[in-house]
Amino acid sequence: MERREIENLRTLMAYEKARKAPPAAFPKLPDIPAGRYTDPRYFELEKKHIWGKAWLFAVHLDELSEAGSFRLWENAGQPVLLVRTRAGGVNAFFNTCQHRGAPIVTETSGRRPLLTCKYHGWTYDHDGRLLAVKSPEDFQDLDLSCRSLVKVRCELFGKFVFVNFDEAAPSLLDWLGPIADDWQEFQFNRCRLAARHVFDLDCNWKVAMEANMEVYHIKNIHPTTVGAMLDDRQNVNTLYANGHARMVCPKLEPDGPARALAYGAPARAEIETVGEIGRTCTQSYNLFPNFVAPISQYGIPPLMFWPNGINKTRFEVWTVAPDWGDAPAPDMWTVNNGETLAQVLLEDTEFGAWIQKSMESSGFRGVPLSYQEARIYHWNQMADRIIGVDNIPQELRVEQVIGSEWIYPNDPRLAEVGQVLAAE
Ligand code: FES
Ligand SMILES: [Fe+2]
């Protein structure tokens, strides 16, 4: 992170701590309609537009370590097969044979020199080209070159493999925008996959995710873990294009007992290039739509939230860390290799099922968000834009009140800083 950006963040931390009200230029946030968590119409719109158009983190390159290594990935609802090619790249295809639609693979992972459909034996290479069919003499004018596996867009940031079902989407780098620059010092290209686990939660996926998009809750639900670790009054949220956001919150005691209590088995090795902010603050990103990761010198641990029906979440917890040598692989998010969630996540997920039940009751009308929860509102604005506001029933929309003046690098707080700090 550049010096100027670090200075701006330090200034904004002082500003946040000193302010007596939301920034003068910050809009009042209208309530988020309750139906966005419970109405099947909104759920269907998410399926079509959010999961169909956004870049989605699918696998880590370490899971595709050799030519022919594959992963079957179905988190976004459509069956996708990711394969490492002989040239070292990664291809993604629909796991759909172009003969009669049988799956090319049925295992979650494995290695195949060629991709042969089990049903009638059509054989494809790692670029999806149909090489051979059984009994070709029985087909009339079958042009093999027109029957390749159907590709899904697939791009890498370091060793993080993202997919996108939308041909018209921007490149992954354009999608990430300035976040890609912030991430350079974290060595996404070198860190190794250390742990990956899945948990089922009984709530809408956004309910689960939103617990990781604000620090307003930390003194209440994390009193002895991250609540004791962070100076939440100095938290600085930054909003980016495409619905992404960052929080930077200074730590009170970076490696104190609260940290040890919060996380499962934190890494000991360090990413030496991580700068001052990553080492002294919680520097966490939420990438639209469903990736949340507090990144630090200890590693990159994404939390991923996938819908498993309207009121169920498939919660994936990942630890990607600098080389740990002979030590046990670090696992930030679980205890006993996936037996339970680490303490901080038990706290974050504690109310999910309760919230879902209330949201489905007639006692729940909508969500009034504070300035401190602006990342959630910003996310919702992007959700409606990617869906297309006109496609959404009026009563389920959010108003687009946070304007481009709040999108990085714009920041009206910087104009107000002197005034607020002088009043201190
Ligand atoms: S469905 Fe794949 S070969 Fe027939
Ligand atoms: Fe939390």
Architecture blueprint of SSEs:
Blueprint: H1 3-18, E1 32-33, H2 35-38, H3 40-53, E2 56-60, E3 69-73, E4 80-84, E5 90-94, E6 109-111, E7 115-116, E8 123-124, E9 130-132, E10 151-157, E11 160-164, H4 172-176, H5 179-182, E12 192-201, H6 205-210, H7 218-221, E13 236-239, E14 245-250, H8 257-262, H9 276-280, E15 281-287, E16 291-295, E17 303-307, E18 313-321, E19 334-335, E20 340-341, H10 343-349, H11 352-360, E21 366-367, H12 374-387, H13 412-423
Antiparallel strand pairs: 1-21, 2-11, 3-4, 3-6, 4-5, 5-10, 7-8, 8-9, 10-11, 12-18, 13-14, 14-15, 15-16, 16-17, 17-18, 19-20
Helix pairs in contact: 1-13
The protein binds FE2/S2 (inorganic) cluster (FES) and fe (ii) ion.
The site of fe (ii) ion (FE2) has 5 residues, from loops.
What's the gist of this structure?
With 424 residues, the protein is of the alpha+beta class. The chain contains 13 helices and 21 strands.
Task: Give structural notes.
By secondary structure, the protein is an alpha+beta fold. Helices cover 25% and strands 23% of the residues. It is built from 13 helices and 21 strands. The strands form 5 sheets. A 7-stranded antiparallel beta sheet has the order 2-11-10-5-4-3-6.
Protein traits:
424 residues; alpha+beta; seven-stranded antiparallel sheet; binds FE2/S2 (inorganic) cluster; binds fe (ii) ion
